[in-house]
Design goal:
This protein has about 325 residues and is mainly beta. It starts with 5 loop residues before the first helix and ends in an 11-residue tail after the last strand.
C-alpha cells in the first residue's frame, strides 16, 4: 500500500462502516498499539481529549509478535511459519502482507527511523544486525552487520529514513556504522545509553547517557560530528524523542509522573504534569502526540503538545469480557 494512497484508505474504511455487517473502525485513527503480552494489535481512535482503544484487530494466522511503525499505517510482524513481513493497515483490516526476504525472523529489538522508511533489526543469538530499507512498499535488507566486530552487543540504535546513516549504542559509546562498510566510528563515549534517536533531518541525533545523567545533542553525525550537552542530572532509565520540527526534545522518566521538553536553541526545560508515571514515548499519527503509558487491560495515557502547552489525556481500558471476537 503506497503512502500516497492512505487518504483513500481511510475514505474507503469510513464508507465500509456504513455497510450492514461491516467490521471496521468508526472515526479517525490516531495510531496503533501492540500489546507486549502477545500478538494483539489495537487502533487508537478519536482526537485529543476523546481517545479510545478499538477491539483487537484481526491478524493473519501465524503472527507471533507485532512491531508497530510509529505514526504510520503498517507494522513489522514476526510469523511462526514464514518469517518477518510488513503488515499494511487500512482502518480495521489488514490491507497487505509483504514478506521481507532474508530478514531476521525473531529480532531481540526493532528500531524504526523517524518516518519509518527504514528499521533496524538485532539478534543476539545470531550476532547479526540488519537495516531494512524501502518500508513499507518495497522492503529489503539494505545492510547487514556482524555485531562481534562492535565493542559489545548493541543495546539500541537509530537509523535515517534512507537507511544510510546508522548509529549504534554498544559497549561504552555511540558509534556511526558506515553504510559502505568499514570500522565503526566512535561519536560519543557513554556509560549507559538508555535512549538514542535521530532527528527527521537524518544528520542530528540525541543521546541520553543514564550513567552520567546527561542528554547530548549530536550534530552532523555522518560528516563533521559536533556534540554539546543539553541537560544533566537525569540519571537512570528514560526515553527521549525529537519534536516534529526538530526544535525540541521530549523526555520521559518512569516514576517522575510527567513529560519534559528541552528547547534545543535555548536549553530551556518545560515540565508537564501527568497523573500517571510515563513508561514509554511512542509517536502517534498527529504531530507531537505520544502514547506514554499503555498496559494490557488497563487505562492508558497520551501526551500531546497544544501550542506551547502540554496536555496529558486519559484513555479508558477495554474490558476483555465485552470485546468483540477477532
Amino acid at each position: 500500500m503506497a503512502r500516497s494512497a492512505l487518504g483513500w484508505c481511510w475514505l474507503l474504511a469510513a464508507l465500509a462502516g456504513l455497510l450492514p455487517g461491516a467490521t471496521t473502525i468508526a472515526g479517525p485513527v490516531a495510531g496503533y498499539v501492540a500489546e507486549s503480552s502477545g500478538p494483539v494489535l489495537r487502533a487508537v481512535l478519536g482526537v485529543p481529549g476523546s481517545f479510545r482503544f478499538s477491539d483487537p484487530l484481526p491478524l493473519p494466522d501465524g503472527v507471533a509478535r507485532v512491531h508497530v511503525a510509529p505514526g504510520q499505517d503498517f507494522a513489522l510482524v514476526e510469523r511462526t511459519d514464514s518469517g518477518l513481513a510488513v503488515l499494511s493497515l487500512c482502518g480495521a483490516k489488514v490491507d497487505l502482507v509483504t514478506a521481507v526476504d532474508g530478514a531476521l525472523t525473531t529480532p531481540d529489538w526493532v528500531a524504526f527511523s523517524p518516518q519509518a522508511g527504514s528499521a533496524i533489526l538485532f539478534s543476539a543469538s545470531a550476532s547479526r544486525l540488519q537495516v531494512l530499507a524501502g518500508l513499507p512498499d518495497t522492503p529489503r535488507v539494505a545492510m547487514e552487520l556482524d555485531t562481534t566486530t562492535l565493542p559489545g552487543p548493541p543495546r539500541n540504535g537509530a537509523v535515517s529514513d534512507d537507511g544510510q546513516t546508522l548509529l549504534i549504542a554498544a559497549g561504552r559509546g555511540v558509534y556511526l556504522v558506515p553504510a559502505a562498510g568499514g570500522a565503526a566510528q566512535l561519536l560519543l563515549p557513554a556509560i549507559e545509553v538508555v535512549s538514542l534517536a535521530l532527528f527527521r533531518n537524518g544528520v542530528d541525533a540525541a543521546v541520553w547517557d543514564g550513567g552520567t545523567g546527561s542528554i547530548h545533542h549530536l550534530q552532523n553525525v555522518s560528516s563533521a560530528p559536533a556534540e554539546r550537552v543539553l541537560a544533566s542530572g537525569l540519571k537512570g532509565v528514560g526515553k527521549l524523542y525529537p519534536s516534529w520540527d526538530g526544535g525540541k526534545l521530549f523526555v520521559v522518566k518512569p516514576g517522575a509522573k510527567g513529560v519534559s521538553s528541552i528547547d534545543l536553541a535555548s536549553g530551556e526545560i518545560q515540565s508537564f504534569d501527568s497523573s500517571a508515571a510515563p513508561v514509554t514515548l511512542d509517536p502517534l499519527r498527529n504531530h507531537d502526540t505520544f502514547l506514554i503509558s499503555a498496559r494490557p487491560h488497563q487505562p492508558a495515557w497520551i501526551f500531546y503538545l497544544d501550542g506551547t502547552a502540554g496536555r496529558v489525556v486519559f484513555v479508558p481500558a477495554r474490558n476483555p469480557m465485552t470485546e468483540s471476537a477477532q
